[in-house]
Amino acid sequence: MTPAPFGSPPPDTRLPRYHRVREALSAQIAAHQWQPEEPIPTEAELAQVHGVSIGTVRKAVDSLVAAGVLARFQGRGTFVRRPDFQSSLFRFFRFLDANGAFRRPASRILKREEVAMPGAVAAALKQTPGAPAIRFHRLRLLDERPLLVEDIWLPKDRFKALLKIELSEFGDLLYPFYEQHCGVLVASAQETLTAEAAGARHARLLELEPGAPLIVIERVALGADRQPLEWRQSRGPAGQFRYQVEIR
Amino acid sequence: MTPAPFGSPPPDTRLPRYHRVREALSAQIAAHQWQPEEPIPTEAELAQVHGVSIGTVRKAVDSLVAAGVLARFQGRGTFVRRPDFQSSLFRFFRFLDANGAFRRPASRILKREEVAMPGAVAAALKQTPGAPAIRFHRLRLLDERPLLVEDIWLPKDRFKALLKIELSEFGDLLYPFYEQHCGVLVASAQETLTAEAAGARHARLLELEPGAPLIVIERVALGADRQPLEWRQSRGPAGQFRYQVEIR
DNA sequence: TAGTGGTCTAGACCACTCC
DNA sequence: GAGTGGTCTAGACCACTAA
After folding, report:
1. d(C-alpha A234, C-alpha A205), whole Å
2. Whole-angstrom Cα distance, residue A190 to residue A88?
3. CA–CA gap between residue B172 and residue B165 (Å, rounded)
4. Structural contact between residues B218 and B191, judged by C-beta atoms closer than 8 angstroms
5. Which nucleotides of chain D have an atom under 7 angstroms from any protein CB?
6. Which stretch of B25-39, B55-69, B185-199 has the lowest confidence by average pLDDT?
7. Cα–Cα distance for residue pair A209/A203, rounded to 1 Å
8. N or C: which end of chain B has fewer CB atoms below 10 A?
């Protein structure tokens, strides 16, 4: 038995080989070793590099595909998946226009401010309470009708470049701005769904009666290293929301 | 090339072999060929029966395990899974007692009646509108405090045995009664989550203010053959509900 | 100890994409 | 046509369960 090699994470003593190959690939993906546009090495190459058979490589890749990290394309190669947030809970709001076609809602930033981070947000972002933060208030609309109110918090140090951008220059999506101006790439997120009665402010913004039921979605966006980057809370009318699952 | 064999479903011309093996296993499971307590044939046997290698059988079984239909146990065998509804949305209601331990809520049947099935329910159960139906009103409680109101609809013909049971004899769970008295086994279900403001009746039953936000979960319970068996709508206070997902 | 699934190999041929 | 992933084989040994 060979002695365990030294390395930063515990060197994985008796795990199955496909498991170790998967860990190695995961680490390389997290280190941005491959761009989403270029294929990762072929299965034959990976088999040779890791000293295992192709079948074992396939099993490792299989599990990363199942986890949504990689995507395979027959004849083209295997690619790091650019997250498209297809499974986001927002998908279950009825983002349809008058003709029934899907539409991305427009965004209107109502306010951008520099404030101290409250305790609950700081806990989610692993910051100290009161740390400098950037906060956005945003409204999302469909055909000029309000659909969602959003409250977005970012740690100021990593995102201060956003303070120099004119509000009118922001597009409908924020994550491309994080990437281009702050070098921060959102890789995944955790969402929590709850519901509440609309307060006066949210009711006014969403053009509802106070007390109307709202769906509340809280999201912590994570980087490839699973460090929390952004915290946001979004509210929309419950009547517009419908979430379906299969259970066993 | 051998001629396509005759059979009830189209005999699957050029599908991968593991796919055909999976279909065959699926059909046998749906036909109750194996009980959940007994293992299905070993991988070696299945390989021989279907004329494929063990690796191909494993791939077929893999996909059924991923779908939650089978469960494998090293050294024991592979079994048809008895559904435990672990993924039900109800799991996200806070079913906790004063000490924070999980508890199954108690059930109190408020009413049982024979009525004609309304159109919406009939559509979900693939019955004709106005067909004879059994309807239960039920309250679920935790520590004597109401947690959920339920409205349950069943087609009368398959479930008439339930009419002979005293209301006091029903336990906390209905599905065992379906199985024992009506020979009907629930294999899976589809759930839809929405929210609404509490009407007067639901508010009173749940001891809330009228207009308080409610989470509404609609469930269609399906048999092993995916025929709809039961339709139910459950309502609970939104503040007690919290649903979490990981998105990519 | 016998039998099960879990892991792994070292190939093969096929279907597809791209040049 | 060259190169990719998709499917498939016919074995092997290991880890675990149950008797």
Report:
1. 12
2. 9
3. 14
4. yes
5. 3-12, 15-18
6. B25-39
7. 6
8. N
Closest CA to A29 of A82, A75, A76: A82
Cα A202 vs. chain centroid, distance in angstroms? 25
> Is B195 within 8 Å of A215 when comparing Cβ atoms?
yes
By the CB < 8 Å criterion, does B244 face chain A? yes
pLDDT at position A4? 36
| pTM, rounded to two decimals | 0.85
Contact B89 A197 (CB under 8 A): no
Query: What is the full per-residue pLDDT of chain A (248 aa) written as tens digits?
Result: 333 333 333 344 468 999 999 999 999 988 889 988 789 999 999 999 999 999 999 999 999 999 888 999 999 999 999 888 877 888 778 776 566 667 788 999 999 999 999 999 999 999 999 999 999 999 999 888 999 999 999 999 999 999 999 999 999 999 999 999 999 989 889 999 999 999 999 999 999 999 999 999 999 999 888 899 999 999 999 998 988 888 88
Q: What is the pLDDT of residue B2?
A: 34
A213 residue type, one letter: P
**Alpha helix locations (H) across chain B?**
17-30, 43-50, 54-66, 119-125, 156-159, 175-182, 200-206
Contact of B180 with chain A, judged by CB distance below 8 Å, is answered with: no
Q: Least CB-CB distance to B192: which of A88, A212, A244? A: A244
Query: Looking at the DSSP assignment, which residues form a beta bridge with residue A140?
Result: A107, A148
B238 touches A at CB < 8 Å: yes
Q: Is the CB of B94 under 7 A from strand D?
A: no
Q: Which nucleotide is nearest to A72 (CA to C1')?
A: D5
Candidates B73, B49, B46; CA nearest to B59 is B46
Nearest one of A126, A185, A188, A187 to A153, comparing CA atoms? A126
Please answer whether residues B104 and B97 qualify as being in contact, where contact means their C-beta atoms are separated by less than 8 angstroms: no
**Facing residue for A242 by CB, picked from B81, B84, B192:** B192
pLDDT above 60: residue B62: yes
Q: What are the tokens at B19?
A: 């796919």
Q: Which nucleotide is nearest to B65 (CA to C1')?
A: C5
DSSP letters for B54-73: HHHHHHHHHHHHHTTSEEEE
Residues in chain B: 248
pLDDT given at position B99: 65
Size of interface A-B (CB pairs under 8 A): 122
Mean pLDDT is lowest, of A54-58, B151-155, B221-225, for: B221-225
